[in-house]
Amino acid sequence: MPGPWPITADRDADGVLTIGGVPVTELARDHGTPLWVVDEADLRERCRRYREGFAGVDVAYASKAWCTVGVLQIVDEEGLYVDVASGGELHTALIAGVAAERIVMHGNNKSRTELVEAVDAGVGRIVVDSFVELERLEAVASERSTRATVWLRVTPGIDAHTHEYVRTGHDDAKFGFTLSLGLADEAARLAADLPHIDLVGVHAHIGSQIFGTDPFIANTEVMLDLLARWRDELGITLTEVNLGGGMGIRYTHEDHPVEVARYGRAVLETVDERCEALGLPRPRLMVEPGRAIVGPSTVTLYEVGTVKPLTGLTTWVSVDGGMSDNIRPALYDAEHEVTLAGRSSAASPQAVTVVGKHCESGDLVREHVPLPSDLAVGDLIAVAATGAYTASMASNYNRLPRPAAVLVRDGVVRPLVRREGYDDLTRHDVSLR
Ligand SMILES: Cc1ncc(COP(=O)(O)O)c(C=O)c1O
Questions:
Q1: Domain segments of the chain: what residues?
Q2: Distance 206 CA to ligand 1 centre (A)
Q3: What is the pLDDT of residue 168?
Q4: DSSP 3-state assignment of 195?
Q5: What residues form DSSP beta bridges with 304?
Q6: With CB atoms 3.0 to 4.6 Å apart as the test, which of 54, 275, 329, 431 could cross-link to 364 if both were Cys?
Q7: How far apart are the CA of 150 and the centre of ligand 1, in A?
Q8: Binning pLDDT at 50, 70 and 90, where does residue 285 land?
């Protein structure tokens, strides 16, 4: 199978999709649909490939991709640091048992409360995103008579050619200190003078779902040049560089992302060459992939609820989830591979449009996708590469309870996230009667 499917994905003798050795028919029967099925072997393997491909570099998992206790425990066991971008993600990481010093705290608008939580927990690094935050953090650290260890988030002026909503490194971005406007220099000078801020490095994340190594190489060069220039012009010596995440993954057979090993080699060669040219000692480096760690590990199982063929027009296939468990098609026009999962079929393929059950025409699973022409109500379909930015962006739109997630490995199924029920939907509602 693999392509965009997890590494253990296979078909059994009856043509039923299996993940981690478990037929999806069994998973749907025992755990219901929609269901996120996480291939544990795949998830662990991607952590390992990252650590091998980036030997000598710290790898942090960007938990925004999927922040749930079990996933964080697995990446922690595989030796990854954890990047969090809110108090809630920080709380989840701490509950998961991740050591605070292995947590990196992000966010372009961290509240005072979130900064207090980060400082009190003792997170390893706080990535400061703005002048306001620098002052806020100085105050929080000062009140506690401590020093916060900080990276500055730099906006490096690199336009990664990816979807507009996931570009973050271009000058006019909402994140960080824009280098070309002199803001990063100003922030470095200010931070270096603040008594409760210990400025040790810089961070730049240029975007997400990036194919090719060039933007990452450019980012590496810009960051190292910056370190050398600050050393020479500002007298500020920094020893740490976080190059962000952003590596693209395969959602369909048409996607051809770079292998981690190639990406790692390209970055590390750039680091060596540039450091030598600039007379810089090699800094401590970190990368922080999210999507590339958890995305390919997971498939979503849905059951077909209705099939509506419109003569000469579209055949609409509705499933029992949709934009509440995967907003990506609606938000980014994203395409995920879809397959008939619960049986084999010899019927010829027919282009259909798979949609969710929400009251929005944009509630797409996949448009014009070839599925067997005998696709029928009750069939199970699987959607590939749904581990990243699906569960973490899930909602209760139309008051759909959020799905369960299970972890499968070597024929064993373990719950990862419990399915919500109607009680969960009204738990926070306050009755006026
Ligand atoms: C600061 C930061 N680091 C890392 C990531 C992870 O990106 P990806 O999931 O594309 O690897 C993001 C994603 O938006 C981010 O904002």
A1: 10-38+296-426, 106-289
A2: 8
A3: 62
A4: coil
A5: 319
A6: 329
A7: 18
A8: very high
Nearest-10 Cα torsion for 30, 36, 41, 47: -160
Q: Tell me, using a 6 A CB cutoff, whether residue 114 lines ligand 1.
A: no
**Interatomic CA distance for residues 402 and 394, integer angstroms:** 7
Q: Is the CB of 51 under 6 A from ligand 1?
A: no
67: annotated active-site residue: no
Q: Is 34 in the pocket of ligand 1 (CB under 6 A)?
A: no
Report whether residue 129 contacts ligand 1, using a CB cutoff of 6 Å: no
In whole angstroms, how far apart are CA 305 and each of 320, 344, 379?
6, 19, 8
Question: Nearest C-alpha to atom 4 of ligand 1 is from which residue?
Answer: 245
Fold of 10-38+296-426: Lyase, Ornithine Decarboxylase; Chain A, domain 1 (2.40.37)
Task: Kindly state if the Cβ of 62 falls inside 6 Å of ligand 1.
Answer: yes
Residue 290 CA to ligand 1 centre (angstroms): 6
Atom of ligand 1 nearest to the CA of 208: 10
Instruction: Return the higher-pLDDT residue of 2 and 188.
Output: 188
Q: Is residue 108 within 8 Å of 134, Cβ to Cβ?
A: no
Give the whole-angstrom CA distance, residue 270 versus residue 224: 10
- Average of per-residue pLDDT values in the chain: 96
Task: Produce one character per residue of 194-217: b if its CB has 16 or more CB atoms within 10 Å, e if not.
Answer: bebbbbbbbbbbbbbbbbebebbb
Please give the CATH architecture assigned to the domain spanning 106-289.
Answer: Alpha-Beta Barrel (3.20)
Task: Say which DSSP state 247 is in.
Answer: B
